Amino acid sequence: MELVKQDYEENIKQYQGLEKKLKELLGDSIPIDHVGSTAIPKMKYGKNIIDILIGAKDTIQFDKIKQILEREGYVASQKSKDNIYQFFSSTAEETRAGDVHIHLVILDTDRYQEFLILKKYLLSHEEEVKKYSEVKEMILFQEQEIDRKTYKRKKSEYVSQLLIRAKKWSHDQE
């Protein structure tokens, strides 16, 4: 597994093409947002995987969107799903630069808001972006033969703390 230097401009172009296609499939009323590291201009390193957040108003719409995404070839993870969240990837194999991850989440849930709060926080805190990128890099360099599962676990530990700071900041903004 490797991190690569992020190409923000290229990632935005890729996201915009994906967003256009998703809007054609799902309609303009479905909220679609670019989230994750590729949505942050100053993020130095990442996996260059485009993360997309799609909001469903209820479980009926959630199921309809899920079916559309699967019909379009997105692979639903059986590990990360519950009644408000479903993860999809553009490939069943190990994901790498250029792939797409879709996070389908019921609107007005904490899980949905966390994606947006974290993005807003990182866009407003350049020092946090630098630190996050450094943490990703450090995880990989500390471990000689790191696998995706270990990387995700270690990154998740950091992101959990980052999300606490982001929520506090968001709450203070209200």
Describe the structure.
The protein is an alpha+beta fold and 174 residues long. Helices cover 52% and strands 20% of the residues. It has 5 helices and 7 strands. The strands form 2 sheets. It has a 5-stranded mixed β-sheet with strand order 2-4-7-6-5, with helices on both faces. Helix 3 packs across helix 5 and helix 4 packs antiparallel against helix 5. The radius of gyration is 16 Å and the shape is globular.
Q: Structural class given helices, strands, pairing? A: alpha+beta
Contiguous uncertain segments of 5+ residues: none
**Average of per-residue pLDDT values:** 89
Order of helices and strands: EHEEEHEEEHHH
SSE map:
Layout: E1 4-5, H1 8-26, E2 32-35, E3 45-46, E4 50-56, H2 59-71, E5 75-81, E6 85-89, E7 100-106, H3 110-124, H4 126-142, H5 148-173
Parallel strand pairs: 4-7
Antiparallel strand pairs: 1-3, 2-4, 5-6, 6-7
